[in-house]
Amino acid sequence: MMEEVEKLCDRLELASLQCLNEALTSTTREGGKAAVVKQIEEINEQIRQEKEEAEARMRQATKSSEKSTSGGGGGSKNWPEDDLQLLIKAVNLFPAGTNSRWEVIANYMNLHSTTGIKRTAKDVINKAKSLQKLDPHQKDDINKKAFDKFKKEHGVVPQMDSAAPSERFEGSPLDTSPWTTEEQKLLEQALKTYPVNTPERWEKIAAAVPGRSKKDCMKRYKVRFLTHLLLGLLLAQVLSESIAFTVAVPTLNSKLQCKVEPFGKILFW
User: What is the model's pTM?
Assistant: First the structure.
């Protein structure tokens, strides 16, 4: 059941969670259970479709690669990770509208590539199109491999001068950009590394998540923790499991640094 709760937390938007809450509080226990089961089935179906689509894209990409290889010429050339990153950089440097854009990109790659492989305009066009067909996870994997290679070749990632304390302007707006999978992993690791009794805990956690402030990390923690709490309690209530919500309130208030009693009104009827 906890695996299903994780799926609901990761997949549902806030509006969907609110609709689920309303469904649970405005119907019978059996009706609430049916609403949860239906939502889980829809998510599982969505995951299945995404998996099938990703597999289909991979098969298509493999066929295209085999076709270009059998055809010989520029399309049969290998594309190491370094050249893929160089291509991505060149495409950004020379946007649409640049005169003889693809010839310029090919010349740029031939000038800066360390592989010794010469590219033509046709080569870079075909590869750019194939990259556009990749799903976000494959693109993230390419970027991660390039970053790992950079760290391996250049040592640790450059850090800010520890002699000068970093400034965090607590009054500035929160970073509203979506959290990436990598940022979430860094946050979770930092939460484990710096337990509750660690002095200046949230400052240290924020320092471990590049690009995110103390408030960003605290808000992310509260939102996700509270979402898990609500869904866990809602599902437990629907499935007739016993949960001592009132006993947990003091601990939850302390950990979340906010009042959770109002949510009890939503959960129990």
Answer: 0.33
